[in-house]
Amino acid sequence: MKSRSTLLRKIWRKLRPSKPAQPAPQRVSEPPRKPVSSLEPLEGRIAPAALLNPTTLIYKDLDGDIVTVKFTKAPLAELSPALNVAKANDIFKFSTGNVTGGAFDAANAPLQQLQLIDLTKASKKGAVNVATGTGLTVTVLKGSVNGTPGNGAANIGYLNATGLPLGAVSIPGDLGRIDAGFSNSLTGVASLKVKSIGVADIAVTQIASGANLQSNIVGALGSLTVSDDIKDAAIRVKNAVDVFGNIGAPGKIGAITVGGSLRGTAAVSATSNNTGLIQADGDIGAVKIGTDTTEGIFGGGGTNAGSIRAGGKIASVTISGDVKGAQGQGSGAVVAGGSIGAVTIKGDLLAGSGNGSGVISSGGTMGAVKISGDIDGTAAGSAVGAGGVQAGGKIASINVAGALKGGANLQTGFIDSGSDLGVVTLHDIIGGGGINSGTVTAAGKIAALTVIGNIKGGTAAGAGSVFSGLDSLLSGDIGAVKIAGMIQGGSQDNAGTISSTGKITSVTLGPFTVPPAPPAPFTDVVRVLGGGGAYSGSFVSAGAMGPVKVNGHVDGGAGSFSGSFVSHDFITPDEERAGDMGAVLILGRLHGGGGPDSGEVHADGKLASASVGLLSGAGGARSGSLRAGQGVVNPGITGAISVKGTLSSGAGPQSGGIFSEGKLTSVTVAGAVTGGSIGAGNDIGALTFKSNVQGLTVSARGQAVQGPAADLAIGRIIVNGNVGASKFLAGYDTSLLATNTDAQIGTVSVRGTWTASDLVAGVRDAGAAGFGKGDTFISGPDNASIVSQIASVVINGAVAGTVSPGTDNFGFTAQRILAFRAGGVTQPLKTATPNEFYNVGGATNDVSVTEIAIPAAV
């Protein structure tokens, strides 16, 4: 038998006509050979495809290339050369011509397309197919047709090894389909390496009868390497199952490398189902698709078109371009029943109009996810659950350089973890018209959230939002939240919302890098904007919320609690967590909206401190306000409150307010006060107003635990301007109900005038005339050791009522007023004499300093 190198030299000489072919050497004194070890020419004519030996076939491809097909195990084991050639014609089917045993004349051989290699027709020894476990290598020597060079590739329509395991298969061309493996084999194909799958026209590459692109491998596929595209074809790797239904070998795939794209059939038809599909019943190894940004995974018009699916886990996924869904349900997707390792998509993750299209989904955990473009659920159509990343378990981290965009339908453009989420980084979160579209959700906690751009709620409930702790059995904490741009609420409830069923570590809004002044760094920019839905454009925790910093404005909207920071108590039969809030710093304004509690800082528990640029209410009740101790777990102490600018109310009751149901340590307002309310369920330590106060109502019930002889409800009041049409009420709760007859006020100092205003400790107005006339004690418990009193009042300017005397009255009223001076005049108060009355209102004659005695019987 001649060696392979001798045969190739003969082929080369045939392809070079300048060197005349040499006559074949004569056989001399050769010993007899076994029939299966050599092939003798059956005809003297020029052969088409030639069987060189039991393992090797050679033929000329349609474009003139010379193609050699070589097996590692001979598929031919007949009793004579003639029978081997006959068997070869059962195995190899061409578009034209047969296989002969004659010499191969490359220059004159006809052009042939190898349409079928059918190893099920190979020789048998006993009941065993001799090709069992064989490898297959196809090599190509470039030729030409009429001066046009060949492409150096060889397409094979169908490799049929049904019931047979195969070794390594290497084809430098397109493969239409392959069937291999059987129930008792661990490996169906050791490895498959091809130029492309399904790209060539099957009308040319396959026998017309039964032509298709559906491959089935039973048992493992060691690896799949495709240098160009997989198009319209399906590769299914199935479990090897015995007659009793037991899995003898899992249908797994090792590493998958596709140098081009994975593409489903575009037509919207049942014939497009499962096209462009790689599917394994078991695990899949590392997946790499594409070599540049134009290549990726592209869905089609049928179910699962353009997708990779594993019944088990997928080791990792790397896509050089886009993952794009289409009309087919589940198209343009990577899905694992188990876990998926690290995921890298260097383009976009795009929904199609089919449900579940354009998704990366695991039934278990998922590694770090990095996407260089967008997660986009905005594709037209009626898709549900399209364009997103989903895991049944924990996702290690999410980093999306572009935006998360919601679409018109339910949960389109989404990130969803069935357990915890690691650090999440996105450029933008944009809600759409579908419920929970453009949304990040975690059944458990979220380690941290960073948004480089903006969060914008959509037109449906929950759109453009972040939710954690959806599983009541898991912690719903969110770590540090940082948003460089703004959060804007949507028109429906919880649209444009960050909400946790646990704590939120901290919240920061505004640029991550602040340029040095001048100019002033971004303070005059709206960073939080409520919308029409409840809690839209808001931050909500069930439990504590850490420090909050806003480098700009906070504006409420039409929805209740819109444009707000809210820490609610978390109460179950087994656990209580107070809704405490850390230090709040809003460099711009805190402004209410039309909805109740909109534009509000609201802590069910204690509030460490708060500083705002200015505070203003609007039409909604309690809008534009700071409120603490609103729950039941820990009313606690509210720290220092500072308003750097003005304080003003709106049309809504208690709008433009500062309230603590526990102790309010101090309030300082640097700008003018026009309306608004300040209230404490217990006491207020100090009030400081650095400008005029007009139309303000202050109330404080008293200390949580009275002293032996004191119950200081308001410790100190300082006004560096004028006071007008205001009330300071000690012994009154935040709803202005008179409840404590022992309440006291400390020192009061007013640099300017006092007009039509009241200062009251422990008394109530018994009639409709106003304080200072007909006042009486507050009914209820009375500590005989404590006298409601005002320690001192100093008003530098004049004191006056209104210009309509007799219609109203105003008073400085308590059981005792220890000192009073107004307009340079000190009133001669006698501490031993109750029921003193002094008119201090000048010409208006409607302002009095009054002491009220409580009857001894009470």
Structural notes for this entry:
- The chain has 858 residues and is mainly beta.
- The protein has three helices and 83 strands.
- A ten-stranded parallel beta barrel has the order 39-41-44-47-50-55-51-48-45-42. A two-stranded antiparallel sheet has the order 7-8.
- A hairpin with a 5-residue loop joins strand 20 and strand 21.
- The longest helix is centred in the N-terminal third of the chain and has 12 residues, at 4-15.
- The chain starts with a helix and ends in a 7-residue tail after the last strand.
Explain the layout of strands and helices.
Elements: H1 4-15, E1 49-53, E2 56-60, E3 66-71, H2 81-91, E4 92-94, E5 99-100, E6 114-118, E7 124-125, E8 128-129, E9 136-141, E10 144-145, E11 148-149, E12 156-162, E13 166-181, E14 187-197, H3 202-205, E15 214-218, E16 220-221, E17 224-226, E18 230-231, E19 234-238, E20 240-241, E21 247-249, E22 256-258, E23 262-263, E24 277-280, E25 284-289, E26 297-298, E27 307-310, E28 314-319, E29 323-324, E30 333-336, E31 343-345, E32 349-350, E33 359-362, E34 366-371, E35 375-376, E36 388-391, E37 395-405, E38 414-417, E39 421-430, E40 439-442, E41 446-451, E42 455-456, E43 466-468, E44 478-483, E45 487-488, E46 497-500, E47 504-509, E48 526-529, E49 538-542, E50 548-550, E51 553-555, E52 565-568, E53 570-571, E54 576-577, E55 584-591, E56 600-603, E57 610-616, E58 625-628, E59 637-643, E60 647-648, E61 657-660, E62 663-669, E63 673-674, E64 677-680, E65 684-689, E66 693-694, E67 697-700, E68 712-719, E69 723-724, E70 727-730, E71 744-750, E72 754-755, E73 758-761, E74 763-765, E75 775-777, E76 789-795, E77 799-800, ...
Parallel strand pairs: 1-5, 6-12, 9-13, 12-13, 13-14, 13-15, 14-16, 14-17, 15-19, 17-22, 18-23, 19-24, 22-25, 23-26, 24-27, 25-28, 26-29, 27-30, 28-31, 29-32, 30-33, 31-34, 32-35, 33-36, 34-37, 35-37, 36-38, 37-39, 38-40, 39-41, 39-42, 40-43, 41-44, 42-45, 43-46, 44-47, 45-48, 46-49, 47-50, 48-51, ...
Antiparallel strand pairs: 1-2, 2-3, 3-9, 4-6, 7-8, 10-11, 20-21, 53-54, 74-75, 80-81, 82-83
